[in-house]
Amino acid sequence: MIWLDTIVQGLLLGGLYALFAAGLSLVFGIMRLVNLAHGDLIVLAAFIVLVVVEATGLNPFLSALIAAPALFAFGWALQWFVFNRVLGKDILPPLLVTFGLSIALQNGMLEVFSADSQRIPAGPLESASVDLGAVTVGIMPLLTFASAVAVIFALNQIFYRTALGRAFRATSDDPVTASLMGINPRSVFAMATGLAMVIVTIAALYLGMRSNFDPSIGPARLIFAFEAVIIGGLGSLWGTLVGGAIIGVAQTVGAQINPEWQILAGHLAFLAVLLVRPRGLFPRAVD
Amino acid sequence: MLETHSLTASYGQFKALFGIDLTIGAGECVAIIGANGAGKSTLMRSISGVLKNAPGMVVHKGTPIGDLPADAVLQRGIAMVPEGRKLFPSLSVEENLLIGGQIRRGDGRWTLETVYDLFPILKERRLSPATALSGGQQQMVAIGRALMSNPELLLCDEISLGLAPVVIRDIYAALPRIRETGAAVVIVEQDITRALAVADRVYCLMEGRVTLTGPTASITRDAVHAAYFGDAA
Amino acid sequence: MQVTVTTRTRASTVAGFVALGLIALGLILPAFASRSLIQDLFFILTMLTLAQLWNLIAGYGGMVSVGQQAFVGIGAYAMFAGVILWGWDPVPAILLGGVAAFLLAIPMAFFAFRLQGAYFAIGTWVIAEVTRLVIAQWKTLGGGTGTSLPREATSDIIGVATIAELFGLRDAAARDVLAYWLALALAVGTMAAIYALLRSRNGLALTALRDNDNAARSVGVDAGRLKWLVFLAAAAMTGLVGALIYMQTARISPDAAFSVTSWTAYVIFIVVIGGIGRLEGPIVGVLVFWGLQTAFSDYGSWYLLALGLIAIAVMLFAPRGLWGLFASRTGIALFPVQRRLVTSGLVTGQPNTQREEVT
User: Cα dihedral sign for C330, C334, C335, C340?
Assistant: First the structure.
């Protein structure tokens, strides 16, 4: 019984990791950019949501709704003014720029928000749970998982049902030819990073409500996100959810055996998948 | 309608074009012929904005556009069918066409329906991934995709390359219907006979320079041969 | 008419002599330098070595690792294990660090080489994290909180007594001198080895590999073997440096020894600011980094914030770094690896100082 519970908790935790990963996957899929500051951007978004909560007294969900457009604009500007300038055949410049951004963000947040642990207050939701017969699960993890499914579903709709999604896919295939179709790849990239920041805001909302956070935890979130993306297969959004679930289950199972092994078990699961399926579980046919 | 003035282009150290002067009138059909590596595709890429130039090197309706990016050039009504077709593999046939119409100029003639009317086979295959089609059908998608923006000038780069003669015939058969809309067409070809048969005027390029130009009616086979291969005979 | 291929320029010949002079000066420096200068130089030399090694694998080999802290950490821990568990003298125990890092690099390369580009970067990072988490379970070496070198081990390190006597120093200062000499030897040895490698046939192949994997393969470069070789060698050297750094610190913890910021972020900034893909880059970079650190480290996280922004700015506006800017203006290369044809005194290729000799 304890194992069933462990696995369910792990699956639900995977929802959080899938939320971390969805933005990374989106950006990578469209412009082959791996943003090493992704984890720090999640933490930044969590602080911004917290600031809105404290300033307005609104509940966290409404606060995230208010923060999202600002973070969209931030992501758009980041891509337009910085990342677009270093995208190209050489992967080193974007990697180094996002790494520099990661360090800058961590230390900037340290100055502004201090090293103290923070939490986004979620009221009674924090401890509410629902009895599903065999297992009892928290409302918050359930909500996280449902949001992850919703985000990935919505992203798929955007990708395959809208003109923007068409432009995303075309630009991802071939930016030069896309520009011959009247698409400005730079503005498509900026839209994509803006959208990724909206997902980051959702991820940050749950990160902040479920556990304490401080300016230093970004890199670890980046690694979880990255592992979920790789396990799922580059560019596969639903694969990202599966990848998140695998990391989540591995972590809760590891923690069940020895609390110190939680993170380690997640990493080992990732390495094991990498060993047998180097391109992930659901690799994209065209790449 | 469109002119180039002493257009030059280079890839790094390698100079591909040495001062090309070219004019294309409204509604005209102009053929650009030349051997492999003569600079034909570079010329198309320069006009369409894929390659950046000095502003004044390309002039459209009196406005210098040499430095505009490709998306801005398209907005001025200049569309290109790129060499090698360059369809988007992640998109279906219909999505490829739709993306060509993402920027439309006025209520011109070309819509999904009229493109399907021009190339009926595409309607049957409309939901297939674009790259699952045969080479000829892919070329039709590429042409249809460029038409979807209702261009005033259509640049066709090597549309017969790698296709069987019977397929080439089908594709060229669409040309009169494209010209009916009043659009000017530039055809880049290695197949001299085919190009001379449809064009009003011809430019022959060799090693980055124009070696022959004039109305197709007034040009002899020998002159073309000399301009194409560079021998003085 | 005789045609030869050379990489030599007048600037490089001068640089060679200057380098020899600097090495000699470096060797005798402890006789008259202050202890704080020796400590600063230790810091500069170890960071320079780490930067040269990262530059080798990333700048020349195209393998952008963000997991170098794994080798620093495992090297340092192996040295601690040698001293604490097996009673080795710390100096020979440094060699254990090189061996441990080499052994770790084998599985790391096995996994990471399955990943391309940016994913290689994070893959190496994950493996470094795994190593940190495993080492934190090693209770005899202090687990997650870490441990210190025992007093008796640090008090009679080989050679310290002699140095103390020679320069009339106290033991602690003499230990610094020893660590400094070892750092000097590692830095010079690393740079000489990298320079020799780059000028060899393998060096040419390595750069060909970075520029185009497939093309290099098609002209017969054994991509896999060469990448493995460079990655493992750099890992082993990084392990030695890690062991040396922690011999001098004498106190270790998993978080510090496996710090991505200290051992990879700083190193990358040094290389980027100085100029990636050139031997001169890390030298310039480490001096700039040390200067910034000395001047501004009191400002704590503001300083790090600025460092991150400087790295971004350099990448945006001078992607080849400060040395790249300088070299493209002047054409000077202190450690040229570019081959030029020399035809009976006539030089083709780079406009260079040697041209003056012709006229």
Answer: positive
Mutation test of the interface with chain A: which of C65, C133, C145, choosing the one with the most A Cβ atoms within 10 A?
Answer: C133
pLDDT higher than 50, residue C135: yes
Alpha-carbon separation of residue A231 from B90, C99, C109, C128, C250 (angstroms): 22, 32, 19, 19, 40
pTM as predicted: 0.89
Domain count, chain A: 1
Residue B126: inside a domain, yes or no? no
Helix axes C171-199, C35-54, angle to 10 degrees: 30
Q: Best of A180, A187, A188, A191 to disrupt the B interface by mutation (most B CBs within 10 Å)?
A: A180
Residue B139 per-residue DSSP state: H
For residue A237, what are its two tokens? 């959004």
Sheet holding C340-343, edge to edge: C3-6, C340-343, C346-347
Which is nearest to C304 in space by CA: A112, A44, A100, A217?
Answer: A100
Decide if B25 is inside a domain: yes
Within a domain: B172: yes
CATH number for the domain including A82? 1.10.3470
pLDDT at residue C357, as a whole number: 31
DSSP B162-229: T--HHHHHHHHHTHHHHHHTT-EEEEEES-HHHHHHH-SEEEEEETTEEEEEEEGGG--HHHHHHHHH
Residues of A in contact with C107 (CB under 8 A): none
Query: Is A267 at the interface with chain C, CB within 8 A?
Result: yes
CB pairs < 8 Å spanning A and C: 117
Number of structural domains in chain C? 1
State whether residue B86 sits within 8 Å of chain A by CB.
yes
Q: Domains in chain B: how many in total? A: 1
Mean pLDDT for chain A?
92
Check if A268 contacts C (Cβ < 8 Å). yes
For the record, the structure tokens of C84 come out as 């604490």
pLDDT digits (tens, 9 = 90+) for A165-192: 999 999 999 999 999 999 999 999 999 9
Is the Cβ pair A182, B98 closer than 8 Å? no
In a domain, A133, yes or no: no
Cα end-to-end distance, chain B, whole Å: 35
Instruction: Report pLDDT digits (tens) over A187-227.
Output: 999 999 999 999 999 999 999 999 999 999 999 999 999 99
pLDDT over 60 (residue C359): no
Domain span holding position B44: 2-85+152-229
Kindly state the tokens that stand for C241. Answer: 């440096």
ipTM: 0.90
Closest CB from B79, B95, B145 relative to A166:
B95
In tens, the pLDDT along B97-134 reads 999 988 877 767 899 999 999 999 999 999 999 989 99
Closest alpha carbon within chain A to C135: A264
User: Hey, which chains touch C, using 3+ CB pairs under 8 Å?
Assistant: A
Instruction: Name every chain C residue with its beta carbon within 8 A of the beta carbon of A104.
Output: 304-305, 307-309, 312
Which residue range is the domain that position C189 belongs to? Answer: 3-358
What's the CATH number where C109 sits? 1.10.3470
Cβ within 8 Å, pair B99-A181: yes
